[in-house]
Amino acid sequence: MVALVPIAHIVAAVFSIIELGLSSYVASGYNGYNGWSGWWSRSPDIVNFIIFNSVWSLLVLAYVGLTPLYMTRLFHKLVSLALLVITTIFWFAGAIALAVFVGAPRCGANTYCGSAQAAVAFAFFIWAIFMFLTVLDTLEAMRSRGHSAKANHAYPGA
User: Fold this and answer.
1) How open is the CA angle 9-11-13, to the nearest 5 degrees?
2) What pTM does this model have?
3) pLDDT band at 29 (very low <50, low <70, confident <90, very high)
4) Please, are residues 142 and 148 in contact by the beta-carbon 8 Å criterion?
């Protein structure tokens, strides 16, 4: 399982970059940069939150994935776990809110609509990856602190 962690970091980073591109494209449609200007004067808050999540995830992945390799003095396991938990919560909230915002429209040839639907799908994929990383990091933190993932109720001398 430990061998999957670097792969999950790379996949999460690639998906975060894809999500950043998709959500930025959707935001540009609301801001009128493409010559089309709807009644929105700015992009919706949820789209902005997804852009924030993408950038935040890249920063967290840089800390969690690169700091233990190159700057070991700055790395702390519990800080890493806390960052993963926060990021997982951010992605869950953002993915649900974006799915509610987008709904299930019939896009046809509308590229903004299709990009918004793809952004919802990638948001849930990223949430699943961060949930996987959080669970593995939690299990590793429990083992390293002298706890076991299994309940051991045997008393010494009993």
Assistant:
1) 70
2) 0.83
3) confident
4) yes
DSSP designation for 74: G
H-type alpha helices, the chain: 4-31, 45-70, 77-102, 111-144
For the chain, what's the residue count? 158
Encoded tokens for 117? 């639907």
Which single residue is written with the structure tokens 């970091």? 9
Average pLDDT rounded to a whole number, residues 125-138: 95
d(CA 72, CA 10): 20
Structure confidence at residue 31 (pLDDT): 66
Query: Residue 7 has which token pair?
Result: 């792969």
Measured over all CA atoms, what is the biggest interatomic distance in the chain, rounded to whole angstroms?
78
Residue type, position 55, single letter: V
Q: Are 49 and 65 in contact (CB under 8 A)?
A: no
CB atoms within 10 A of CB 11: 15
User: What is the token pair recorded at 9?
Assistant: 């970091």
